[in-house]
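Note to self: keep these together.
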Amino acid sequence: MHVSNLRPAAPNSSAIESRLKQKIRIAAGVLAVSVFGALAIDLVPADPRPAGELVAAGIVMAIGLLLVPVVYAYRGTERAFRAEHIVSIGLFYWLLLDIIQGVEDVDLSQEVTQQAFLAIVLTAVGIWIGSAFGPRRLPSRIGRMLDNSVDNESLFRAGVLCFALGMLKFLIPTEFDIFEAVSFIGAPRWSAPWGRGQLGGLDAFWDHLQYFGYVVPTLAVAYGVRRGWYSIKTVMLLTCAVVMVLFLSQSGGRRIVGVTVGSAMLCWVFMQRRLNLRTIAVLLTGSAALLAAMQFILEHRNQGWFGEDSRPGYFKTLHVDDNFFRLGQIIELVPAEHPYVYLQQLFFIVIRPIPRYFWEGKPIDPGFNLPELIGITGVSLSTSMIGEWYLVWGMPTVLLGGLAMGLLCAAVNLVVVRSRKGGNAAVAAISLMVIFAALRSLQDLVLMSYAIMALLGVMALLRRAQRTRRRLSGSVKRGRRRRIHEALRPDFKGDRYPE
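Structure:
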């Protein structure tokens, strides 16, 4: 395998690849998705309902999504970690992995199933095209922040501070009783006192403190690579990371654990000198272990880690979210039985960060409730980002949603390049995992981005403290030189003293 240095030569997209090579890569991505997508649509059987009938179509669609990312990963180039490649892998994971395993019936007609595949094709094509027309530069303030790395001591302090703030989400409801809080690790997801309903009140404020905890494993890995894995401070940060992941996993949210641990693994890869077979092997092994842990969380989140499986045999395969099936249900229901929601969907996403404490009448959905329409109560069903864009105005907005995601990928690419050049691999890793999770839901794009803002805020605070320490240190040294000079020349009356 050809290996290549992971460090970029310049802080913009042109440093990674020439414009011609970029166009060739994007054209290859569009062509692969279009050709294999058309084949997948043609392979949909007349009756796709029985389990296993969509395996062939799902595999062909997966080849179209993964062909270009895998080729660049095999070549060992930096383009392997571009955002549009990560998003293509995300489309495969969130939408195709369930049907490829072929373990459940998909109660959809042939026409609806074909439209679901078409929606995936339109989204992927939009992502590839949008990534070619994204921004070429970051705002100067953000660029300067990403260019300047914090020192090791500040990185350690950032990890400790984020851990302390993240743990407040679990300690405040237990009145800072550490033993009580620990006793809920591994308990059923709704039994812990920090669990809250859909309509949060004042408790929503400390609930948001958990986003600081999302970055602790990544900061621990970044510090460990810099200072060594046997350093006392590294062991402390890794312990904090394990504790934080255990508490986050109690809620049963697999994507939270996936983003948190996945960011740490990506950070480790980014900080390696070269992308070689060993690095890829460690990444794949870690990913497999993470998927197994997420599966365990899914199996035991309702009855606890030590309880019996409530649905024996249901989790024999890797279960994701039935997003393909739910996307098909939306296509089947809208607009035949329910009108498009138009701008209500986007409005709902925009107002998501506003606390309900300040707005009691804040909408609880975008004007569409899938569980209610299909007669299921007491659950929430994810439909993927594609399903949410379809609700706006059908297939045209699915394509527009893909273009918007492509533009976001282009911006994330700039963040990744600047972050890695400036020694801030943690920011690069978390940014990529956030857009990976965003494919599950547009709401997740908003919520997971809080982790990036939390990390940037803490790092900005510590950089300012770092500059203040340096100025004070410089002032002390100048004052010491002044006193020495006065002692040697007491008759000196000037205003300047030699440095």
